[in-house]
Design brief:
Length: 666
Amino acid sequence: MFSKILIANRGEIACRVIETARKMGIATVAVYSDADRDALHVRMADEAVHIGPAAASQSYLDIEKIIAACQQTGAVAVHPGYGFLSENPVFAERLRQEGIYFIGPPVKAIEAMGDKITSKKIAAEAGVSTVPGHMGLIADAAEAAKIAKSIGYPVMIKASAGGGGKGMRIARSDGDVKEAFERSKSEAAASFGDDRIFIEKYIEEPRHIEIQVLADGQGNCIHLGERECSIQRRNQKVIEEAPSPFLDAATREKMGAQAVALAKAVNYVSAGTVEFIVDKDRNFYFLEMNTRLQVEHPVTELVTGLDLVEEMIRIADGEALRWSQKDIKLEGWAIEARIYAEDPYRNFLPSTGRLKRYRPPAAEASAHLVVRNDTGVDEGGEISPYYDPMVAKLVTWAPTRTEAIDGLAVALDQFEIDGIGNNIPFLSAVTQQQRFRDGQLSTNYIADEFPDGFSGVALDDDTLLTLAALACRASFQLETRGFIEPAPLSSGHVIAERSVLIGDRRWDFSIPKSDESFVLMTDDGQPLLIEDGWQPGASLTATEIDGRTLHVKMDRVTSGFRMRYRGADIIAKVVMPHVADLMAHMLKKTPPDMSQFLLCPMPGQIVRVDVAEGDVVEEGQALAIVEAMKMENVLRAERKARVAGIKAGVGDVLAVDAIIMEFEAV
């Protein structure tokens, strides 16, 4: 077995590989850039080598620096993780030349599967289903109709040089083809100066389902079932699960067999993933093969019981597979939610900064529930603008899909992150949607369910009442313990009366005398028994109210609490009833009108300004580009206006909502 391996990566996946290597008794070497000097993976490894500036191109992507780090430390093998150099055949070849083992597939397999045209050709030759289509020139609408009928409706008629949705039409019958062909051809000529058209099968209600394969150097290859990865945003996976709620045993067996056939066709070795698009009738078609470990590998590990990183290391060391296909049994259900440093309330724009609070839910491993959090950060760490914004992967396993979803929902409730924007509220919202719970998924899920973006969740009346009661109880605790000035107490059988305001809603509570428990009485006489609750100084409470347990994030604000639960973010004010009466007559504070300004939507650096003072801009016109997380975000005009002033220039690093430009009406 290898004595020492170097992890040519950072963050979560570097920590993940280190954990398995440590379990196997293998020494580890981390590499780090200037931005990662104090990162978790650096502290976890046995040794760490600095490899350059923060920019990945000068550090994690620099092949010669990685090789030099191996030579400096005596590392005999390299695990590339995912991203960066993981699918770079030049890197794998350079390691081979230096006598360093690559914990991944052979160079030729990486090359073959890295080219989309070559990979589809190999897939077709190996008997793998590919999307039916006609890539040759099409003379006229009549020929188009003939081709479409041979492919089978519906079809997508597409411009060869297409992009941005131009030159694309769906045809569902012979009658549709003529119009679609002519319109696509005309648009293509006008938009791209190229009117060539091709036709391929249109996949309705598409699902993204992938098969995990594992192969050794002795010609053995097996599959480990599938992962459903259909919930995506901008082609980025958000929630994954294993198995798929859609596949039946027969389809799973066919997809697995084809994935193994493809792997064998390219003499694949190590862990790899064959990705398919699957239509509503369970017809499946090859997309691509990822010649590396996938981000979502934990769900496969939890339903199979295998450690994929360990298997990769053993295979790279020359061992034969320890498992045959009949040994692989899928047990229970696992779901993974990717937690990103992004603001769901601002169209998921990247967020950077320090993790003022980072407290994941406690790990759990029982016969009824597993909670696992794969991460590469800890409290006080910095989320850098230089790398991928993923903070953690929260994974739950349970005997059934419903139980796994419920476990994930509670774990998200318990996950505390402050200091940066994060997508936990959005993930929580998805877990509560009936469509998700029913398994009615497609790659269009987020676009369908959140067409106007995410603006939080409107809680039902029972949940709001429960949160109001919790706020009332917490406020009364502060009073009785002297943290805030106590309000007047009542006499008789009632200790106190309080009102809770959430938005435009109001609840009135009375607190009866009781030596044994804390009871609230609503204004309609409904008793609420609070068994446990928030403690002063705590930011998370696990409270049981009338038998219903809630895990609520709570922070003190003026006259109340900020409460976050299941995708909702609310302010609950706790006041005396007469104060609540008066507050109903108070004027609402009007926020300042910022419509005449272009504000920076996220922390980032201006890399381009496209207009000058005095210019008249039109709706949709590009104004500036802000770079964050290595993504360039184009800021556009919302309406016609004149640029009255430019307040920031190229190279400026701005905070969120910093003013970039000011406009005036024309």
